[in-house]
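job 3f2a | input accepted
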Amino acid sequence: MTPAAVGVTAPTGELDGLSAFAYESLPMRVVFGSGCVARIVDEVAGLGLSRVLVLCSPEQRGLGREVADVLGQASVGVFDGARMHVPVGVATAGTSEARSRDADGCVAVGGGSAIGLGKAIALETGLPLLCIPTTYSGSEMTPVWGLTANGDKLTGRDLSVLPRAVIYDPDLTLGLPHAPTHAVVLPHVAAFNLPAAPHAAAALGRALGTDDPAAALAGLNVTLGPPSRPCGPSAWTAKTLPPQPMLSLPVPTAIRGP
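job 3f2a | predicted structure (258 res):
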């Protein structure tokens, strides 16, 4: 029976002027609220965990220890060796630490470095991951993992690395630097709000010389780089990364950094 025979119109890509799309909902629990970092105890217990390893970078060592203290006997300690882009050696050390302490899960506290390390450990061991983000990296909401070795970056997608729960406590972001934070967030805010503010959109479009101010703002971030970093576009190029014997990695995509 054809769609027309039952009164259903086959999709054409447009529906009353709106673009058709497909959305896959990822299984994740999100907790939000000022001071809700203390709820990590309930979230860990809710997953049936009792021996979690807290992960953080050296810069977040203090906060990592505070979270471990809140968890009490449910924490087996803190591994504070997370580094940007998750070097394979760091991922191996973190995995060894989790195994040696007989951890049954990990809690990543911090930004992309800590969360990325948690994903690498989850990829290798299958241990569930919970996240307490302190930045806007967004890694906590995706099943994308990444590792680096000798200047090469290996990335992939695997639902086993998707955090089981994410705690967003806005109090933990109050110390973020003002200019870089606004530079990163502004294009997304513009894309969401400008359709409802046509006069502002027109003025911003004239100032930037474009019909798409949000895209232009995002382009400036790529061209100039965030205010806290050296200017210049990213120079990632495709390259094949040889297998790493220390970790078992599925179906990777590799890119090489500058």
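job 3f2a | The mean pLDDT is 84.
job 3f2a | closed
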